[in-house]
Specification:
The complex is a heterotrimer. By secondary structure, chain B is an alpha/beta fold. Chain B has 22 helices and 20 strands. A 5-stranded parallel β-sheet of chain B has the order 8-7-6-9-20, sandwiched between helices. In chain B, strand 15 and strand 16 form a beta hairpin. Chain C is globular and about 70 Å long. Helix content of chain C is about 45%, strand content about 10%. Chain C folds into 2 domains: about 70 residues, no CATH class; about 325 residues, Cytochrome-c3 Hydrogenase, chain B. The chains are: A alpha+beta, B alpha/beta, C alpha+beta.
């Protein structure tokens, strides 16, 4: 595996590399070099199986991380190729020409994360959310609770109690609240 | 096409002649498995209403509701889980998380009701057919969702500690504290039990988040003596900790100590926002009698509310019983000073060596201050009054402990008996053991008390540690006579104590006079409780004050006595312990504020 | 069906030579021409476990174009998990696949354990293996009934679903639940085996084998079934990688890959799992391969029952799971389900809730990319058989 990393590093600039398990490694590459790396891994290094392509939203860094999970049947190792892309106007090169099922993931990411893959077949088609009008729901800033409260209604008559507050009410209601620091201007 | 492939499918007809494998009447013939996750049951005798079930339910199916007949008492919120079967997914995490094992499931799986509201029910309260079913899913003892094992506290080994007064408990380091803090359920049952109602889950959460500054702020909301409490608090909170039902309670006291140990004294005012506190904001003055926990707590909260406070203390150093009653190995003096110095830094003045009643009268204080708070504590020893107790080699524990703190030499005998089984008795026993060790190189001290081992009032660890230090603890005996030979103490005669309290819980010891024992000793220490010294009250004031039938000064909810300007709190009202004193001082400070605002 | 028997190997691009016109690689269908009819199969269709629709364009009874529609079962599990503590994810994941929930349970627990660096005790690993293998049997039995039923043999469906219920009885004893077992809690498993479980399991294995003997005679060795399944939905070896085909679907086309053997997890490394493959690649080969795998699972369960340790802890020493924070990191954990590579990709940001969980359903590509290609040119009546032979599970596709 180390040799493979060396070989790739000779080709392109590798931003990060880590070993999670004996059969699972991750590398991080530049966005522009992804296609090159993937086709090299597929055609020359035996990483022929694309297990999945998925995104992770790092909202605080304004980045999406795309993970292309590859597998090599001979050395029996999974290799995750990570790419960080900008979150606003998120766009990525399509790899539908490398794997015949990649378009499916790209269509999903387009719908659930709002990442565009120009040229990917049927990328605009809806995948699971026909008629969805909100923001792409897998983005971190989509608030599922707020959405469901807006869309559905609660079963009437439900209420709960916090043991802490309830016991205060029942047992030491008159216990004074902590004094505030009083200053000169009051 | 092979002939075999045409013929072999015809064997399907064979099965027409076979007996079916299926069950004819599954509802009746086939109950759920013993382990089935069916409908919920709740054993109210175990349930404490901590709400862990509600907390873990990912479906939001559980509400905590009051239930008729369930009182809210210490350690039980009186709330019970109500489950919405429209949301429940029967994952049984609520069963696995339940620290008491009260919530379980039956193996019943059919339920037909006309009214959809029936499917929202309180197991255990609403009558169900399966409440008493013995089968069904229960928490396996082999797994745990909660962590029931306390992080061990590092202590000095007995050999290292029994010759010195170095602090025994080493305190948690960061890693240990974080690990211990992680165990908290945040149910909040402890808050009601804490006399000062400290936000315990709040500061523990702050430890988890490694936000010590915030933790310190939470501590000072209701307790200005966290270094002291973090070491010697009676930690009643831990007795009601939900985890205590199935394992070790959370080490709340040690976690509090961890917080304050992390913060250097000079950072306090900055963190707590008192760095530019103006005193005399209100131009009102309050006098405080006694620089013990109650008095200083009142002084602290009065100070941050802008009052000018002055504390009158009879002894040369502040702290009261905390300093003069608790040995240094449990509570080092520099830690007391850390708490008190911070209070003094807020402008609280302490006048030492001034005994109210003799050096200055209460009337004088009343004349020059707007209000007075008295937290004078219990400093007088109480005697067993058995024959021989008036010998000069029979001492009170409080007096001896005070002498040790003052640095005065004590005439330690080679063979000592201590009467008493509380924490003070353990304190004097262990102190004497150390002094014997220093003087004679060996320990020969024995403590005996009325209560049997299992109901001894002292903390278990105190008893264990005393034994580790070679003191003998022999509980379950009532003192009969201190034998005096030639004017010198010869030993203590005891008889077996059968029970201490009567069926109404009143103190009424019963003895078996036939079972006797004799403890040889040339010095006896009595530690069976303390009394108050109210000599500072002049006759005039005494006649104006209302007393309870048992001789205590009567106070209202804000610790205001029948003399409106006089507030009284601490051990002479409630306790005796530090945390009650602190809580009394806190409430009295608020009460004084209210009183003076009205005036 | 006529042209299929000749084309044993078709490559991975559907033969669209019969279309009137192609534009940009896509057929242009003019519904007004009365040559074509649009026909919806599903979303409720016994051919698949769950709901999924195939939009067909047919010419007579021949399919000229197919398009899969998902979304009938989307419950946003991945999103829900981002809002839940780690332990609270545990009751959610089993619902990702109804016939075989345990693979999900295993993967999500294993992913958390991998990120948190927790070693699962030996006995728990064996119990997990047993659970996974038993669920494989349950899933295959359900599939077997579906495959036969989709070709009109309803009786076999009743036999195998009935038999599956007896396996669910065992699950009920072992885990407390029949369909959703919720057994593999982070750090281990929830319960030990109940008294007498081994004997009842061994008995059931014997009964199951008897039933399978009947199934073999009536279903696999059946001239009609053979003529309908042989040559149907041929997956060529070249297609396997291009389309990310996994599991029995790939093995039936000659791909020697089984995660239980190649990347052994739980206790599979110590068990004798055989690589079952075929080179034909059609629906019949897949059916036969699954049938053999089912027998292998029965063997494995027998072996596991003999080897499960009788005592020892069943859960690692865990912190308070209500406050459980997992160090930041990323991992991908996979397991061989009856449909192939089933994996969980989990990203932790160091908080008490996962940053991202992605469930890689084994049939993700089978039901969409692959089915859309294989359905072209077959008869409507064969579509159901084809769908089942790919063994798709819609809920794991849309999660």
């Amino acid at each position: 595996m180390e040799q493979l990393v060396k070989r790739i590093n000779g080709m392109i600039h590798l931003k990060a590399y880590n070993r999670q398990r004996d059969d699972l490694f991750f590398i991080t590459v530049e966005k522009s070099q992804l296609e090159l790396v993937l086709s090299h891994l597929k055609n020359n290094e035996g990483f022929t199986h694309l297990a999945f392509l998925q995104a992770v939203d790092f909202l605080e860094d304004s980045k999406f991380q795309l993970t292309y999970m590859l597998y090599n049947y001979d050395i029996r190792v999974n290799l995750g190729v990570k790419v960080l892309i900008a979150r606003d106007k998120a766009e990525m090169t399509s790899i539908h020409k490398l794997w015949a099922h990649a378009w499916q993931y790209q269509r999903e990411l387009h719908e659930l994360f709002g990442i565009n893959f120009p040229g990917s077949p049927r990328v605009e088609e809806s995948f699971v959310l026909e008629g969805w009008e909100e923001m792409p729901p897998m983005r971190r800033d989509f608030d599922t609770k707020e959405y469901s409260e807006r869309t559905f209604y609660q079963r009437p008559g439900r209420s709960t109690n916090d043991p802490k507050e309830y016991m205060k009410e029942k047992m030491y209601k008159n216990y004074a609240a902590s004094p505030r620091i009083r200053r000169d201007d009051e | 096409m092979k002939l075999k492939d045409v013929l072999s499918p015809l064997r399907v007809w064979e099965r027409a002649a076979k007996k079916p494998m299926t069950i004819k009447d599954p509802i009746n013939d086939r109950p759920g498995a013993v382990n089935y996750r069916g409908f919920h049951k709740n054993d109210f005798s175990k349930c404490i209403g901590c709400g862990s079930c509600e907390e873990i339910c990912q479906n939001d199916a559980i509400d905590l509701v009051p239930v008729e007949g369930q009182e809210t008492v210490e350690g039980d919120s009186g709330l019970r889980p109500m489950i919405d079967y429209g949301r429940c997914c029967w994952c049984a995490l609520c069963v696995d998380v339940c620290p008491t094992g009260a919530l379980t499931m039956s193996n019943e799986y059919t339920w037909i009701a006309d009214n959809p509201e029936d499917y929202r029910f309180v197991p255990g309260a609403d009558k169900t057919a399966w409440q008493d079913s013995e089968k069904g899913y229960t928490r396996s003892p082999d797994i745990q969702i909660l962590d029931y094992e306390r992080v061990d506290m590092q202590e000095l080994e007995p050999e290292e500690r029994d010759k010195s007064f170095i602090e025994i408990v080493k305190g948690y380091n960061k890693e240990q504290a974080m690990k211990e803090a992680e165990r908290c359920l945040e149910c909040g049952l402890c808050i009601a039990t804490c006399p000062a109602h400290m936000d315990i889950p709040g500061y523990i959460a702050a430890i988890r988040d490694d936000d010590i500054d915030n933790a310190l702020r939470i501590l000072y909301e209701t307790n200005p003596m966290p270094e002291i409490c973090g070491r010697i608090c009676t930690h009643k909170c831990e007795t009601v900790c939900a985890l205590h039902n199935n394992g070790d309670p959370l080490a709340i006291r040690w976690l509090k100590r961890y917080i304050v140990d992390q913060v250097p004294a000079d950072k306090y005012s900055e963190i707590l926002g008192t760095d530019h506190l103006e005193d005399e904001v209100l131009n009102r003055k309050v006098a405080i009698i006694g620089a013990g926990p109650a008095g200083l707590s009142a002084a602290y909260y009065l100070a941050i509310m802008g009052y000018k406070t002055k504390v009158y203390e009879a002894l040369p150093d502040p702290g009261g019983m905390v300093r003069y009653g608790i040995p240094e190995y449990r509570l080092p003096y520099d830690q007391i000073d850390k708490d008190i110095d911070y209070i003094r830094s807020l402008g609280v003045e302490i006048q030492f060596n001034t005994r109210v009643g003799t050096d200055i009268t209460l009337e004088e204080l009343h004349g020059s201050y707007d209000a007075v708070f008295a937290g004078t504590g219990l400093h007088l020893g109480r005697s067993t009054r058995v024959p021989g107790a008036d010998n000069k080699r029979v001492y009170f524990a409080t007096d001896l402990l005070r002498e040790v703190t003052l640095g005065n030499e004590i005439d330690v005998a080679e063979n000592i008996v201590v009467i008493g089984g509380g924490n003070v008795a353990m304190d004097i026993t262990r102190t004497l053991a150390r002094l014997q060790n220093l003087k004679y190189g060996k320990v020969q001290v024995l403590a005996t008390c009325l209560e049997a081992e299992d109901i001894m009032p002292a903390d278990v660890e105190e008893v264990v540690e005393a034994r580790e230090e070679n003191a003998v603890i022999d509980p379950g005996w009532g003192p009969k006579e201190i034998e005096i030979r030639d004017g010198k103490v010869y030993g203590l005669h005891v008889v077996k104590c059968l029970s201490v309290f009567d069926e109404n819980g009143r103190f009424s010891p019963k003895f078996d006079e036939d079972q006797k024992k004799f403890f040889k000793a040339d010095m006896v220490v009595e530690s069976i409780g303390q009394g108050m010294d109210l000599s500072y009250l002049s006759e005039g004031i005494k006649s104006d004050l209302k007393f309870s039938p048992r001789g205590r000064i009567e106070v209202d909810d804000s610790f205001q006595s029948s003399l409106q300007w006089l507030f009284v709190g601490g051990d002479i009202i409630q306790g005796p312990d530090v945390i009650h004193g602190i809580a009394n001082g806190y409430i009295a400070a608020k009460g004084i504020d209210t009183y003076l605002n009205k005036k | 069906m006529s042209n299929l028997s000749e084309s044993k190997y078709r490559g991975y691009e559907a033969d669209r030579s019969k279309y009137p016109r192609m534009e940009n690689g896509k057929p242009v269908i003019d519904l007004e021409s009365h040559m074509y009819t649009k026909l919806w199969q599903g979303p409720q269709h016994p051919g698949v476990t769950g709901n999924m629709a195939v939009e067909l364009i047919v010419n007579g009874d021949e399919i000229v174009d197919a398009k899969t529609h998902m979304g009938y079962l989307h419950r946003a599990f991945e999103k829900l998990m981002e809002r839940r503590r780690y332990i609270q994810c545990f009751p959610l994941v089993c619902r990702i696949c109804v016939p075989e929930p345990d693979t999900n349970e295993y993967c999500v627990s294993a992913a958390m354990e991998d990120l948190a660096g927790i070693q699962v005790p030996e006995r728990a690993l064996w119990l997990r293996t047993l659970n996974l293998e038993m669920s494989r049997i349950g899933s295959y039995l359900m599939w077997l009934g579906g495959q036969a039923g989709s070709l009109g043999m309803g009786a076999i469906g009743q036999w195998t679903i009935g038999m599956r219920d007896f396996w669910l009885d065992l699950f009920e004893e072992m885990t407390g639940g029949r369909v959703y077992h919720m057994y593999m809690i982070p750090g281990g498993v929830r319960k030990t085996l109940p008294e007498g479980f081994r004997d009842r399991a061994r008995e059931l294995i014997v009964t199951t084998r008897k039933l399978l003997y009947d199934v073999e005679n009536t279903f696999l060795s059946n001239a009609i079934i053979k003529s309908r399944l042989q040559g149907l939905g041929v997956i060529s070896p070249e297609m396997v990688d291009e389309y990310g085909i996994v599991g029995p679907n790939a093995r039936a086309s000659g791909m020697e890959h089984d995660i239980r053997i190649n990347n052994p997890y739980v206790k599979y490394g110590e068990l004798d799992v055989k690589m079952l493959t075929s080179t034909v690649g059609d629906a019949y080969a897949r059916a036969e391969l699954r049938y053999r795998d089912l027998h292998q699972s029965l063997d494995l369960v027998t072996e596991i029952l003999n080897r499960i340790p009788q005592d020892g802890p069943i859960q690692a020493d865990m912190p308070n799971l209500l406050n459980w924070k997992i160090p930041a990191g990323q991992t991908y954990v996979k397991a061989e389900s009856t449909r192939g590579e089933h994996g969980f990709y989990m990203v932790s940001d160091g908080s008490d809730k996962p940053r991202r969980v992605f469930a890689r359903g084994a049939s993700y590509t089978h039901a969409i990319s692959v089915l859309e290609e294989l359905a072209v040119n077959i008869s409507i009546s064969d579509l159901a058989g084809l769908m089942v032979s790919l063994h798709t599970c819609p809920p794991e596709i849309e999660r």
